[in-house]
Amino acid sequence: MTSATGSYWFQRIITLKKKSRGCHYVTDEIRKALPEIGQVQMGILHLFIQHTSATLTINESWDPSVTTDMEMVLNHLVPESLKYKHNCEGADDMPAHAKQALLGGPSITIPITNGQLALGTWQGIWLCEHRNSGCMFLFDFIISYLCLVSVSLTHCLSIICISRKKTIIFFSYTNPFAEAFYQRGAIKDPNLFSVN
């Protein structure tokens, strides 16, 4: 990547497969969806999901039984059998919000070093869906998770954001790196580029 000064942005939507209730390893899915990470020498990957009953987190990636155990721990800490006042969407409604808060909310940040996510040996990115039905009752995310990706490119920084929200606020600078991504077909919409 050619050295540059200033901050540069591009945004696009990626799709993550729909997940059932529980914690799911999604590191490979995110890497595949964001090949641009390979071009960033030093940066930050910021993942954010705009949803109140699902969580992005970093946890053990080697042993798949950890996801089952994590669901058991969360269900023990936040049982559905309590008499919650916020229950208009079912018994899993309020517990899902509490689980998201306990796990740290909807976002994680990972360093990028030499084109790689600088995760520890046993670390992986998880998407934890805390509802039996996800958000199928309101939104058209029945097929998959729609994600917004924005990237800030400088000679030393890249920020990527992921969201499940369909309304997108574009904040971008026209620059050669973003234009190159567009020309390669990574970005389909030329309207994503606008000068702040």
Topology, please?
Elements: E1 9-17, E2 22-25, H1 27-33, E3 42-48, E4 54-60, H2 65-77, H3 93-102, E5 107-113, E6 116-117, E7 123-129, E8 144-152, E9 160-161, H4 176-183
Antiparallel strand pairs: 1-8, 2-7, 3-5, 4-7, 5-6, 8-9
Family: Belongs to the UPF0047 family.
InterPro entries: UPF0047_YjbQ-like (IPR001602), YjbQ-like_sf (IPR035917)
Report the CATH architecture. Answer: Sandwich
Q: What top-tier CATH class fits best? A: Mainly Beta
Kindly provide the radius of gyration, computed on alpha-carbon positions and rounded to a whole number of angstroms. 18 Å
Helix-strand sequence: EEHEEHHEEEEEH
Whole-number count of domains: 1
- Rounded average pLDDT: 71
| Total count of strands | 9
Shape assignment: elongated
Beta-strand content: 25-35%
Unreliable stretches (pLDDT < 50, length at least 5) are: 1-6, 135-179, 185-196
What's the quaternary structure here?
A: single chain
Q: Which structural class do the helices and strands define?
A: alpha+beta
* Major beta sheet, strand line-up: 1-8-9
Ends distance = 23 Å
Reported for the largest beta sheet, the result is:
3 strands, antiparallel
CATH fold name: Jelly Rolls
CATH superfamily, by name, is YjbQ-like
Work out the helix count.
4
- State the helical fraction: 10-25%
InterPro entries: UPF0047_YjbQ-like (IPR001602), YjbQ-like_sf (IPR035917)
Family: Belongs to the UPF0047 family.
